Amino acid sequence: MDNQNQPLDADMDPAGENPQELIITENIRQYWTESRKWGLFFAVLGFIYLGFLLLSVLGISSMGNGGIFAGVFMLLIAGGLIFVPVWLIFQFSQNLKKGLETESIEALGLSFTSLRRLYQFAGILMIVILAFYAIMFLFMLTFMAGRGGM
Length: 150
Fold this sequence. Notes:
Blueprint: H1 26-61, H2 65-102, H3 105-147
Helix pairs in contact: 1-2, 2-3
């Protein structure tokens, strides 16, 4: 009896090729190489920005107790929000370079995993920001209604 849980084309191999084989055309290689270079460019800029952020945090922290609190807050929030996407872009670029040089499907997979995580991070961050704006809008409406401004 046939296994009914298989996809319809599971036994078909029309070109006689391995279905797990990835074919990278010259156009794809060119586009991925250009994307890798731009990714590395943005990652380097992000790391430089993080260095300036660290220097400014050190300057703010030397201003006393309030400066220490502000510096730590700035380092945790801004640094975390900047470091994660910069690191993911860097990983995307490095793994894509390795995958293209060695034609490794595993390295290409890791590269696009980093890109997927970058998009997930950006999406979640956008949801959090929009929720924050919605809460602030509701707070503003409540405040204005309480003051009789509406």
